Every structure is written in C-alpha cells, then in structure tokens.
Amino acid sequence: MDGLDEPAYEALVTAAETYRAVVVVRLAGEAGLRTGEITRVAPVHLREADGSRGIHLLAVPSETDAVRDETGETADPAGTADPAETTDPAEEPVDRETVVPASLAAELRRYADQADLGPRDPFVGVSPRRVQMIVRETAERAGDAVPDRVTPRDLRRTFARRLLAGRGVDPHAVREAGGWETLGTLDGFLGPLDGEAIAAAVGGEAAGGEDARPAGREPTALAGFEALVDGGGAGPVEAVP
To answer: Which of helix, strand or coil describes residue 68?
Structure first.
C-alpha cells in the first residue's frame, strides 16, 4: 500500500473513539512517526520553529532514554536522578525533528493539558504493540472507508504521499522529517516529470536566482511544509468527542 488517500485518511481519524487514538493516528499520518517513536514523544519535544511563526517542530528522541557520560557509561546507574532536572531538552539525544500541522500541535497541547501530562510524560504512554492495536482497531471501526489491515507503516507512507504528491514538498525535506535513510525509499511517491517541468524547475532558479523565489518564501526546508502546516483549519480531529 502506498498510503491512504485523503478521504480514507480522514475517515480513519474520524473513526477514532478516543483522543489517544486520534493522537496515535495523526502522529503517524501527519508527523511521520514510527510505532516506537509514537510512544516516546512528550510535551517537552514540541516547539515552535525559530523564525517561522506558526510552524511547529516535534523532536523525536532516540530510542534509549539513558543519560550517558563521555565514556558511554550510564551517568546515573541507580536511576535516582530526576530526568527533568538532569537533562536539558536541547542536549537530549534526538534522532531528528519533524514538522507537524498547526492543528496537530494544538491538539497535542490540549491533550497534554486534559491528561495532566508533565513535560516528559509521553503523549501516548503505551507499548509499541498497543499502538499497532490502536491503529488496527480504529481501521476496523472505519469499515469499508479504509483499506484492510491498515498499519502504522501505512500511515507513515500516507505522510510521505501527502507531502510529496499532494503538497510538492522537497523530497530531501520529507526524507529528513520522516527519518528515511535514502531518497530511494520515496521514489514510489514521486511522479515522472516531462522536459518542460524539468526546464521550468531548473531554469527558473538559474535565471532568477533569489529573485525567482516567490515573495515571502524563505529558502529553507521548512518553507516546503507551509501548505500542510497552515492549511485548512483545525482538521478532522474535532469530530472526535
């Protein structure tokens, strides 16, 4: 499966019975998180991008949560230190940062407030296996509106598909946001370009340089996500009680 199309994805989100289920689906489908990564992100990892008002970044912490010293040994082997006091979020081991839509950022903060989560309490405090079950159960509730056997991996592909095919985001930015090792992984989502399209893309930059860039468009990877981040209001999550 090359990911869900827009109607199927919206049906899946709407079928979620709990806010937790909504968060699980949207973190995979709109932030590109893997199953294990969904269980690790917390309020402390969400921030507004520097110099890009309204664009939010979600840091994806490394799999190990042990704080290690310069020798590679666990700095607090007894586990007595408070992680909130010993680890600066800026110094925490992070695999990558991904961009999240404004509506998802707002929903994550609202969910954290309602659930009384601390800065380092995971948004989704369950096992990776339970995350897989939540996606499967939600897909079953959506019925014929979604394909059979939807998995978190399919939702990551949905993330790539929406950005590449639907929004025209730079593939390099999508690869970095989703944590894929090579651009080849994304080839299936990239349609062929004819000569005119290639000439327009290459010739426009070569001829105009900085002046060829649309007004207000910053030459950063974040700019490619603006349509996703800003577009369309609060999103389907509001359909969930």
So the answer is: strand
Q: Say how many domains are in the chain.
A: 1
Does residue 40 sit within a domain? yes
Amino acid identity at 206: A
- Residue ranges making up the domain that contains 41: 6-239
Distance (Å, rounded) from C-alpha 163 to C-alpha 29?
A: 11
DSSP letter string over 101-162?
-HHHHHHHHHHHHHTT--TTS-SS-S-HHHHHHHHHHHHHHHGGGS-SS--HHHHHHHHHHI
Q: Which residue has the tokens 């970044």?
A: 57
Q: Is the pTM of this model over 0.70?
A: yes
Residue 206's pLDDT band, with cuts at 50, 70 and 90, is low
Q: Tens of pLDDT along 104-149?
A: 999 999 999 999 999 999 999 999 999 999 999 999 999 999 998 9
Q: Is 182 part of any domain?
A: yes
Cα–Cα distance measured from residue 117 to residue 180, given in angstroms and rounded to the nearest whole number: 30
Instruction: Kindly report the CATH number assigned to the domain that includes residue 55.
Output: 1.10.443
Please say whether the beta carbons of 145 and 35 come within 8 A: no
In a domain, 1, yes or no: no
